[in-house]
Design brief:
The protein is mainly alpha-helical. It contains ten helices and no strands. The longest helix is centred in the first third of the chain and has 30 residues. The chain is elongated and about 65 Å long. About 30% of the residues are buried.
Length: about 210
């Protein structure tokens, strides 16, 4: 009985952190769609199609941000299948991550206004820089929790932990590449960030396979 009580307390603390985080992720995704507005006037179907197609910058920025935030939420959930305890350090890192997540609608709206300007890179730089910082925070969250297994259960699957460690080596580096591309070519940087979101949506095969066997 005595060994089960600390476990239940830890799980309750982790669940509160996850519930709060889920709410922030939901708010950020909701704010993204508010910048998408239907055309004011369309005389006929052909004009409406034209006006809708002219909104492709906003739709591209929205899709990239939506899937990136969604994938960060997905990976956040995956990490907390292993993280069983919380402390002040973890809460602060998670809070910083949520600060960046809820800020994403701002550079998204900025990017949508300037993505079609080939000589304007500041919007894409701010956008890519925000994603780079978010990737660093996710990485820091995991590294902090996994250091010497400080916030794991004693029965954690070490093979799964090593698989996540390998996978997370590339996150900040790849987003740093996207950030660098923003200084040269904004559309290429955005497309690369969208591909990164899709890439990180897929769990590493070793991690997926071993979790199924546990």
């Amino acid at each position: 009985m005595s060994s089960e009580r600390p476990m239940s307390i830890d799980k309750k603390e982790t669940n509160r952190l996850e519930a709060f985080s889920d709410g922030v992720f939901a708010v950020a995704i909701t704010l993204l769609v508010l910048d998408i507005k239907p055309p004011d006037i369309a005389l006929d179907d052909s004009h409406l199609w034209t006006m809708l197609l002219e909104q492709w910058p906003m739709l591209l920025a929205f899709a990239t941000s939506f899937f990136t935030v969604g994938i960060v939420w997905l990976n956040h959930h995956r990490l907390f299948t292993h993280i069983k305890r919380t402390d002040t350090g973890l809460l602060l890192i998670n809070l910083l991550l949520l600060f960046i997540v809820v800020f994403i609608p701002v550079p998204t709206a900025l990017l949508a206004k300037y993505i079609t300007q080939p000589d304007q890179h500041i919007a894409a730089i701010v956008y890519g820089g925000t994603f780079f910082l978010m990737a660093c925070c996710v990485n820091a969250l995991w590294r902090y929790a996994s250091y010497q297994n400080r916030l794991f259960d004693k029965d954690v699957d070490q093979r799964a932990v090593r698989a996540i460690n390998r996978q997370y080596l590339f996150g900040p580096l790849l987003y740093a590449v996207a950030f660098g591309l923003a200084w040269l070519n904004s559309p290429t940087s955005i497309i690369f960030e969208l591909l990164l979101a899709l890439f990180f949506a897929l769990p590493g095969y070793p991690l997926h396979d071993r979790e199924q066997k546990v």
